[in-house]
Protein backbone atom coordinates (compact mmCIF):
# COMPACT_ATOMS: atom_id res chain seq x y z
CA UNK A 1 0.00 0.00 0.00
CA UNK A 2 2.85 2.32 0.81
CA UNK A 3 4.38 1.59 -2.59
CA UNK A 4 1.17 2.71 -4.31
CA UNK A 5 1.15 5.89 -2.24
CA UNK A 6 4.80 6.47 -3.07
CA UNK A 7 4.15 5.93 -6.80
CA UNK A 8 1.21 8.36 -6.75
CA UNK A 9 3.34 10.94 -4.95
CA UNK A 10 6.15 10.52 -7.51
CA UNK A 11 3.68 10.86 -10.39
CA UNK A 12 2.13 14.00 -8.87
CA UNK A 13 5.58 15.53 -8.26
CA UNK A 14 6.60 14.62 -11.82
CA UNK A 15 3.47 16.25 -13.27
CA UNK A 16 3.93 19.39 -11.17
CA UNK A 17 7.63 19.59 -12.13
CA UNK A 18 6.87 19.10 -15.84
CA UNK A 19 4.13 21.74 -15.68
CA UNK A 20 6.53 24.23 -14.12
CA UNK A 21 9.26 23.43 -16.68
CA UNK A 22 6.85 23.80 -19.61
CA UNK A 23 5.46 27.06 -18.22
CA UNK A 24 8.97 28.47 -17.73
CA UNK A 25 10.03 27.38 -21.23
CA UNK A 26 6.95 29.04 -22.69
CA UNK A 27 7.54 32.20 -20.68
CA UNK A 28 11.19 32.54 -21.70
CA UNK A 29 10.50 31.47 -25.28
CA UNK A 30 7.81 34.09 -25.66
CA UNK A 31 9.99 36.90 -24.35
CA UNK A 32 13.00 35.86 -26.43
CA UNK A 33 10.94 35.67 -29.62
CA UNK A 34 9.00 38.83 -28.81
CA UNK A 35 12.15 40.76 -27.96
CA UNK A 36 13.83 39.60 -31.22
CA UNK A 37 10.78 40.66 -33.19
CA UNK A 38 10.81 44.10 -31.53
CA UNK A 39 14.54 44.51 -32.18
CA UNK A 40 14.15 43.57 -35.85
CA UNK A 41 11.24 45.98 -36.23
CA UNK A 42 13.06 48.85 -34.58
CA UNK A 43 16.21 48.18 -36.65
CA UNK A 44 14.21 48.34 -39.88
CA UNK A 45 12.73 51.75 -39.07
CA UNK A 46 14.57 54.71 -40.51
CA UNK A 47 13.94 57.84 -38.54
CA UNK A 48 13.54 60.87 -40.76
CA UNK A 49 13.63 64.09 -38.87
CA UNK A 50 11.68 66.84 -40.48
CA UNK A 51 13.43 70.16 -40.84
CA UNK A 52 11.71 73.43 -41.65
CA UNK A 53 12.77 76.72 -43.15
CA UNK A 54 10.64 79.76 -42.33
CA UNK A 55 10.21 82.24 -45.15
CA UNK A 56 9.60 85.93 -44.50
CA UNK A 57 5.96 86.96 -44.18
CA UNK A 58 3.88 87.27 -47.35
CA UNK A 59 1.37 90.08 -47.91
CA UNK A 60 -0.26 89.58 -51.31
CA UNK A 61 -3.25 91.13 -53.09
CA UNK A 62 -5.81 88.51 -54.04
CA UNK A 63 -7.61 88.18 -57.39
CA UNK A 64 -10.93 89.51 -56.03
CA UNK A 65 -12.58 92.50 -57.76
CA UNK A 66 -12.54 94.51 -54.55
CA UNK A 67 -9.28 95.05 -52.69
CA UNK A 68 -8.58 91.87 -50.68
CA UNK A 69 -5.28 90.54 -49.47
CA UNK A 70 -3.73 87.62 -47.63
CA UNK A 71 -1.05 87.90 -44.99
CA UNK A 72 0.63 84.59 -44.15
CA UNK A 73 3.83 83.09 -42.76
CA UNK A 74 5.05 79.99 -44.56
CA UNK A 75 7.40 77.22 -43.42
CA UNK A 76 8.79 74.69 -45.90
CA UNK A 77 9.23 71.17 -44.47
CA UNK A 78 11.72 68.60 -45.78
CA UNK A 79 13.78 65.61 -44.61
CA UNK A 80 16.84 65.83 -46.88
CA UNK A 81 19.62 67.89 -45.25
CA UNK A 82 21.05 68.92 -48.64
CA UNK A 83 17.81 70.70 -49.39
CA UNK A 84 18.33 73.33 -46.68
CA UNK A 85 21.22 74.91 -48.61
CA UNK A 86 19.34 74.80 -51.90
CA UNK A 87 16.26 76.42 -50.36
CA UNK A 88 18.47 79.16 -48.96
CA UNK A 89 20.00 79.78 -52.39
CA UNK A 90 16.65 79.70 -54.19
CA UNK A 91 14.59 81.69 -51.69
CA UNK A 92 13.92 84.54 -54.18
CA UNK A 93 12.57 82.08 -56.79
CA UNK A 94 10.52 80.24 -54.15
CA UNK A 95 9.05 83.51 -52.88
CA UNK A 96 8.19 84.49 -56.46
CA UNK A 97 6.38 81.17 -57.02
CA UNK A 98 4.38 81.67 -53.82
CA UNK A 99 3.57 85.34 -54.50
CA UNK A 100 2.52 84.66 -58.08
CA UNK A 101 0.36 81.72 -57.07
CA UNK A 102 -1.32 83.55 -54.19
CA UNK A 103 -2.23 86.44 -56.53
CA UNK A 104 -4.34 84.04 -58.62
CA UNK A 105 -6.55 83.09 -55.65
CA UNK A 106 -9.80 84.70 -54.54
CA UNK A 107 -10.69 85.05 -50.86
CA UNK A 108 -13.63 82.66 -51.24
CA UNK A 109 -11.24 79.94 -52.49
CA UNK A 110 -9.17 80.11 -49.32
CA UNK A 111 -11.49 78.25 -46.95
CA UNK A 112 -10.21 75.14 -45.11
CA UNK A 113 -10.44 72.87 -48.17
CA UNK A 114 -9.00 75.62 -50.34
CA UNK A 115 -6.02 75.97 -48.00
CA UNK A 116 -5.30 72.25 -48.26
CA UNK A 117 -5.48 72.52 -52.04
CA UNK A 118 -3.23 75.60 -51.96
CA UNK A 119 -0.64 73.75 -49.88
CA UNK A 120 -0.58 70.88 -52.38
CA UNK A 121 -0.26 73.24 -55.33
CA UNK A 122 2.59 75.15 -53.70
CA UNK A 123 4.44 71.94 -52.78
CA UNK A 124 4.16 70.77 -56.39
CA UNK A 125 5.33 74.09 -57.87
CA UNK A 126 8.24 74.50 -55.46
CA UNK A 127 9.36 70.88 -55.94
CA UNK A 128 9.50 71.57 -59.68
CA UNK A 129 12.19 74.15 -58.94
CA UNK A 130 14.29 72.06 -56.54
CA UNK A 131 17.03 69.71 -57.73
CA UNK A 132 18.51 68.18 -54.55
CA UNK A 133 15.32 66.82 -53.03
CA UNK A 134 11.67 67.57 -52.44
CA UNK A 135 9.80 69.44 -49.76
CA UNK A 136 7.33 67.20 -47.97
CA UNK A 137 4.91 69.79 -46.65
CA UNK A 138 4.16 73.46 -46.27
CA UNK A 139 2.94 74.95 -43.03
CA UNK A 140 0.79 78.07 -43.26
CA UNK A 141 0.87 80.15 -40.07
CA UNK A 142 -0.65 83.42 -38.88
CA UNK A 143 -3.10 83.60 -41.78
CA UNK A 144 -5.08 86.82 -42.20
CA UNK A 145 -7.42 87.37 -45.15
CA UNK A 146 -9.06 90.79 -45.47
Automatic annotation (TrEMBL):
Give the top-rank taxon of the lineage listed in the UniProt record for this protein.
Answer: Bacteria
Location in or out of the cell: Cell membrane
Q: Which residues cross the membrane?
A: 9-33
Q: Mind naming one GO cellular-component term on file for this protein?
A: plasma membrane
Q: Name one GO biological process term.
A: chemotaxis
Q: Does the keyword Cytoplasm apply?
A: no
* Name of a matching Pfam family: FliL
UniProt keyword annotations, A-Z: Cell membrane, Cell projection, Chemotaxis, Cilium, Flagellar rotation, Flagellum, Membrane, Transmembrane, Transmembrane helix
Q: How does it sit in the membrane?
A: Single-pass membrane protein
Q: What is its biological role? A: Controls the rotational direction of flagella during chemotaxis.
Q: Which family does it belong to?
A: Belongs to the FliL family.
What protein is this chain from? Flagellar protein FliL
